[in-house]
Amino acid sequence: MGEGNLVVFKGTVDGITVLLDNQADFEQVISHFKQKLEESKQFFKGSKISIRFKGRSLSKEQQEELMDLLAHQNILNISFVHQFEGEEAHYDKDWIWIKDQLESKQGSLTHFHYGIVRSGNHIDYKGNVIVLGDVNPGGLITAGGNVIILGSLKGKVHAGLDHSYPHPFIISEVMDPIQIGIGNIIAQAPRGESFGSKDGKDLQIAYLNEEQIYVDVLDAKSLNHMLR
């Protein structure tokens, strides 16, 4: 891309695709992204959209910088951030049901948190909570609906506090919480043990079945068990 086109916005059915130049210095790209946001302020005002970044592979630090920028801007009303280019999409098919839940009547109430939930931080929301980052020991999330953590869960999470959500769940890349709660049920892992896998290879889901919390790999089998 030329210097004036380091960042290009393209409209899609449900949002925008942001094309990032793969040769320019990343700080230049970030600067142009901020400029494009300002130029598009009136166009996007009041719209609820999803956003997808394409054109270059980003390091974890660069992804976090973009997420932090999105968290502190007040131009785009973002409903969903798609997977970054270059990341494996081995669990995309399992997101179809999850996406349906987030787009349901209750799912329209979704709070996004960009970055780490550190010790002493408490996120409390009446609907769903999506965290693009880790939940550290001492961090706490309480939600009326579902909780999705695109990172490691090592703190405390309680989902499904609003009983109008029929099948509340907690999803995390690494499921190693101090304590989890779903609805009226609270569970703690035995000392020295973990609720789920720590390798981050497969998304983990915690859900209720017959008043008991289960933690499984997110796949069709676990979803069917949850929905029985």
From TrEMBL:
Known role: Cell division inhibitor that blocks the formation of polar Z ring septums. Rapidly oscillates between the poles of the cell to destabilize FtsZ filaments that have formed before they mature into polar Z rings. Prevents FtsZ polymerization.
Recorded name of the encoding gene: minC
Gene Ontology annotations of biological process type: cell morphogenesis; division septum assembly; regulation of cell division; regulation of cell septum assembly
InterPro entries reported in the protein's UniProt record: CAP/MinC_C (IPR016098), MinC (IPR013033), MinC_C_sf (IPR036145), MinC_N (IPR007874), Septum_form_inhib_MinC_C (IPR005526)
Domain of life of the source: Bacteria
Known partners and oligomeric status: Interacts with MinD and FtsZ.
Keyword vocabulary terms for this entry: Cell cycle, Cell division, Septation
Family statement drawn from the similarity comment of this UniProt entry: Belongs to the MinC family.
Family annotation (SUPFAM superfamilies): Cell-division inhibitor MinC, C-terminal domain (SSF63848)
Limits of the Septum formation inhibitor MinC C-terminal domain: 115-215
HAMAP family named among the record's database cross-references: MinC
Protein name as it appears in the record: Probable septum site-determining protein MinC
Origin species: Cellulosilyticum lentocellum (strain ATCC 49066 / DSM 5427 / NCIMB 11756 / RHM5)
Lineage of the organism: Bacteria, Bacillati, Bacillota, Clostridia, Lachnospirales
Ranges where the Septum formation inhibitor MinC N-terminal domain occurs: 7-75
